[in-house]
């Protein structure tokens, strides 16, 4: 996280006091920040001032993090809308803490991006804001902002990854929401969404080769252990399974590598290795030649996160995908859901 020079010195100090999660060796801190709100778009300055949106780990903040905000002169203000907390200051811009799991971080990024690019969207936003306030204006604009982003972005982030990993000749594949997008494209389903990052499955035994390719391409890489970033100097072993890579150029890509057991021609479900699929069935190839995890396997991961029921974006992914699953995929997913899971009835 490299703060932009336009940040006031007191906000720079606040970010420093909260700590940079990406610096490694810590389980809390600022994962990323962005200017948010209509006031961050020059043409909409008259609506309200800009605010500093923080993707803070964890969410909600710890008592120590709240104390840092209070020591900087911030006090919490009742917030309109779920998945965020607002803190106000007598002299400095508002600080809004965004819940990554609730999708607030990317939603605010999409809205700001769309408002900055589209004069008609700014006018519609201004009208709704005047009639019903900020939360209503955000909700009204979000669907078109996401759709416009998907059209602009297309599959370019995936193509960059494919070009990077192709020389390694590994059975890697895209996972999570991108995997579902690739599957739905093949079903002629008009369904896609914006993504915070790009999830990629690679085999455990090839992880250092992948790391070396990333470093050579200029990515900043980190292994994830016990909720912290650590140096990816030695191979990760189960239960550790995750590494992140960040592009240092203009793309801003975040790659989320999921290390997986792909031995003996089988894909093994990480949370229960007894659940498997033949690799030739688990690893699909899109019409454009991009490999991806079978939708039933991707949805099994999404069926529960951190021991609970699906996050909002995972519920949305299920709703847009399950009507296009064939009978075998529906039966396999239903068989492996936890007892009493809310998706069972739809399957």
Describe, in plain words, how this protein is organized in 3D:
This protein is an alpha+beta fold and 347 residues long. 37% of the residues lie in helices and 20% in strands. The protein is built from twelve helices and 15 strands. It has helices spanning 9-18, 63-71, 104-117, 119-132, 134-153, 156-165, 176-186, 207-216, 279-282, 295-302, 312-321, 327-336, and strands spanning 29-36, 51-57, 75-77, 84-88, 94-98, 173-174, 198-203, 220-225, 228-230, 242-246, 254-260, 266-268, 276-278, 283-285, 291-293. The strands form four sheets. Strands 6-7-11-10-8-9 form a six-stranded mixed beta sheet. Helix 3 (104-117) packs across helix 5, helix 7 packs antiparallel against helix 10 and helix 10 (295-302) packs parallel to helix 12 (327-336). The longest helix has 20 residues, at 134-153. It is globular and about 60 Å long. The termini are far apart.
| Main sheet: strands, sense, barrel | 6 strands, mixed
Task: Provide the structure class.
Answer: alpha+beta
**Uncertain residue ranges:** 1-5
- Count the beta strands: 15
Please state the CA-atom Rg, rounded to the nearest Å: 21 Å
Order of helices and strands: HEEHEEEHHHHEHEHEEEEEEHEEHHH
Strand portion: 15-25%
Helical coverage, percent range: 25-40%
How far apart lie the N and C ends? Answer: 42 Å
- Output the number of helix runs: 12
Task: Report the mean per-residue pLDDT as an integer.
Answer: 92
Side-by-side strand order of the widest sheet: 6-7-11-10-8-9
Question: What shape does the CA trace take?
Answer: globular
């Amino acid at each position: 996280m490299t703060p932009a020079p336009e940040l006031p010195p007191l906000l720079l100090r606040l970010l420093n006091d909260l700590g940079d999660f990406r610096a490694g060796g810590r389980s809390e801190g600022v994962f990323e920040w962005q200017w948010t709100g209509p006031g961050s778009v020059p043409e909409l300055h008259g609506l309200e001032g800009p605010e500093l949106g923080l993707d803070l780990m964890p969410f909600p903040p710890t008592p120590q993090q709240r104390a840092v905000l209070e020591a900087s002169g911030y006090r919490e203000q009742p917030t309109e809308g779920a998945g965020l907390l607002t803190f106000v200051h007598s002299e400095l811009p508002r600080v809004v803490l965004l819940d990554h799991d609730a999708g607030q971080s990317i939603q605010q990024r999409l809205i700001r991006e769309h408002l900055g690019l589209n004069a008609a969207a700014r006018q519609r936003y201004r009208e709704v804001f005047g009639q019903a306030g900020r939360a209503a204006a955000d909700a009204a604009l979000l669907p078109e902002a996401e759709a416009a982003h998907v059209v602009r972005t297309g599959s370019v982030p995936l193509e960059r990854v494919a070009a990077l990993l192709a020389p390694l000749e590994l059975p890697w594949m895209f996972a999570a929401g991108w995997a579902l997008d690739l599957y739905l494209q093949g079903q002629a389903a008009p369904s896609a969404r914006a993504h915070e990052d790009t999830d990629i499955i690679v085999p455990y035994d090839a992880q250092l080769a992948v790391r070396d390719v990333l470093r050579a391409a200029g990515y900043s890489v980190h292994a994830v252990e016990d909720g912290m970033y650590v140096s990816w100097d030695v191979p990760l072993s189960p239960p550790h399974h995750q590494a992140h890579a960040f592009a240092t150029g203009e793309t801003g890509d975040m790659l989320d590598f999921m290390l997986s057991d792909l031995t003996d021609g089988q894909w093994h479900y990480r949370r229960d290795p007894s659940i498997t699929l033949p690799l030739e069935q688990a690893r699909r190839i899109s019409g454009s030649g991009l490999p991806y995890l079978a939708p039933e396997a991707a949805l099994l991961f999404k069926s529960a996160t951190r021991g609970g029921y699906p996050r909002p974006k995972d519920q949305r992914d299920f709703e847009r995908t399950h009507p296009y699953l064939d009978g075998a995929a529906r039966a396999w997913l239903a068989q492996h859901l936890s007892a009493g899971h809310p998706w069972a009835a739809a399957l």
